[in-house]
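Run Transcriptional regulator through structure prediction, thanks.
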Amino acid sequence: MIRYELESADVSAVRFGISPLGEVSLGLRALRVPDAFPLQRPWLDRIAPVRPLLDTEVLLGLVNDRRWVADFTNPRPGSPLTDFGQEIAELARITPERLRGDLVHVHGEVPPVFDGPHGEVVARLVAALTQAWELCFVPYWKRMRAVLEADITYRGRVAAQAGIGTMLGGLSSSISFDGRNIDIRLASPIARVRPIRGEGVTLVPSMFVGRSSTPADENLPPVIVYPARGQGAMWSTADRPDTGAIRDLLGSTRATLLAALGEPASSTDLALRLGVTPSAVNQHLRVLQRGGLLNSARYGRSILYYRSDLGESLAGN
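Sure, done. The structure for Transcriptional regulator is below.
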């Protein structure tokens, strides 16, 4: 178990972030042990044609048999708008000591693939991760990011309405908060107490975490990676519900949109799920919002829509 000890000022410094590089590295676990990630099986099926192009010797060398991943591939994101290019550029400046230390944390030794001149090893590492990003994530990143952003919007609403303790306790069954301490129960035998000391805690939703994760190196800034909500529905095409009177009232398309907005989503995500154009979706969303059935919140570059109380009542929830 990892315990993060917070003072009162630390509680107010809890913030969220999204790490594209972190998603790539955590996604490597699904490549190594596909059966452990059933919700991401559709993603694995989609990327199967490009997997022979990947430098799997390097990529899988970052993951051990317990599915631990080297810390340097999971940077602490500065905001929900962190860019992969920024993160990989920072990784390219990694020191030999940090590279070897993080690998030893994971494997107990440095895998042979990472032996050799530091500059050459880092260049191959950066190239392998960049290629994995471009081939396996970029084609699906809008959809993935929409799920991650919707999760953060939801957590923010919970914190505002029920308090930060309720929000923290609801991140995962392996995370609890007693008003001062955040306890993260991990599958590993690691047990330690880590005072926050004014550094703040960054909460990072992920598509590739079943319970929760923290840095293996206790000297790194406090980060909690937790499972994002809505993963199960990410790859599915929304069914056209038989909404009966609601469909007669709103029309088939708007009734379908209302049913699909049980969780916050962007117009781009809805268009992907429903198989229609974003412009058509936006027209219907504006009508539903003017009618008081939807609320919206700007999140970074996206506008996320979700059902209002009236919309929840009409949808039967």
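Residues 20-142 form one domain.
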